[in-house]
Write a sequence for this structure.
């Protein structure tokens, strides 16, 4: 069911696998995750957006993820997401796989990304930015952005939990699915 605000409630199958310890980030991602996929790395000093293809991360200017500076990492595609986060004990993770597991309700949403201007960096990389200084470097280039109808989005999926005692519904998980333009596609 799609409502006027763009949110979509539906039933899907989904399962979760918890990864209690991650010693080798690239090896763990390769063993749990299907590529190709997008990757968003939240580091202490920057956010990197790139791709995960054939067991390798690809970020602009060949930047690398230093696990010492990693706060959170999301690797995602249409079917699954691996979320990795830093704890005092080291890296931990959650693998969410759709199309498998138990039936659950979800709400899909499009979250607008900052960026009303763009600059092509070549080789499929693009910087989107705004006058106030916010910028993102993205691993794709065939799209239009402006301060009107042409924007970029990230589609997220929010998993609904129904509490049988209180009869309330809440979100208990969220994952990234894909990047979209205003026409719900990227070329």
């Amino acid at each position: 069911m799609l409502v006027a605000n763009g949110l979509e409630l539906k039933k899907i199958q989904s399962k979760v696998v918890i990864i209690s310890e991650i010693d080798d980030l690239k090896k763990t991602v390769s063993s749990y995750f299907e590529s190709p996929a997008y990757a968003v790395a939240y580091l202490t000093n920057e956010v990197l957006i790139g791709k995960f293809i054939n067991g390798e991360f690809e970020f602009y200017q060949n930047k690398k993820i230093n696990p010492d500076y990693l706060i959170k990492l999301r690797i995602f595609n249409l079917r699954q997401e691996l979320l990795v986060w830093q704890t005092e004990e080291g890296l931990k993770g959650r693998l969410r796989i759709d199309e498998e597991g138990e039936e659950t309700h979800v709400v899909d949403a499009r979250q607008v990304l900052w960026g009303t201007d763009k600059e092509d960096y070549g080789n499929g990389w693009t910087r989107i930015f705004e006058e106030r200084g916010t910028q993102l470097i993205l691993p794709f280039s065939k799209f239009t952005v402006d301060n009107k109808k042409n924007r970029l989005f990230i589609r997220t999926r929010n998993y609904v939990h129904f509490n049988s005692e209180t009869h309330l519904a809440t979100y208990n998980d969220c994952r990234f699915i894909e990047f979209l333009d205003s026409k719900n596609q990227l070329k």
In short: The two ends are 27 Å apart (CA to CA). The chain has one helix and 13 strands. The helical segments are 25-32. The mean pLDDT is 91.
